[in-house]
Design brief:
This protein is of the alpha+beta class and 214 residues long. It is built from six helices and seven strands, in the order αβαααβββαβαββ. It has helices spanning 2-15, 42-56, 63-72, 77-82, 143-157, 172-177; strands spanning 32-36, 85-90, 93-101, 127-134, 162-167, 181-188, 195-203. β6 (181-188) and β7 form a beta hairpin. The chain is globular, with a radius of gyration of 16 Å.
Length: 214
Amino acid sequence: MALRDDRQVARDEADSSPGRGAGRWHDRRMPLTSRLATPADLAALTPLVDAAIGRLLSPWLDPAQVEASRAIMGVDTRLVDDGTYFVVEDDGALAGCGGWSRRATLYGGDHTEGRDDALLDPATQPARIRAMYTHPDHTRRGVGRLVLRRCEAAAAAAGFTRVELMATVAGRPLYEAAGYVVDEELSDSSTGVVIPLARMSRSLAPDAASPGPP
């Protein structure tokens, strides 16, 4: 059934990604590349995020939940301005994006209410992993794992020893495969529609500041 096959994409995205010490980020095709996002990327990121929400959440959530998810998800341009947001390209095509933050907001896009730009203390608080999206045409390539590796390395270099994120049901298999554990099962009902989420975190390894190949 389509539902089962589509859900497997998330698991395969996690399972097919190389491990932390693999030294390369590709299969038999061209290697993935990553770089910091710039304001010039924002126009192209909008349809990528829209496709990721619409197509990758649909196997897990009903149509009302998918639509409501758009209100609590999206690109936060503060991350681009802070120089903490990455884009991944697959043979020249924009394949995914995601970032980390030293600010208190845990999830949400520019349009999401309740964001908090307060700076976190690396000595006592975890950095945030934020706004991770893979284009549906580029799943099962290790895009999400590459973004995580870049984010964790940058957070470690900034002095953080732990990271946390808010996972959707579709993203959770990737994070679990990357060593994140669930700290809290919760939901967001700010739109009037209940959307299941999970707060997840992990400690950063001593060598996390070395991200490996881009």
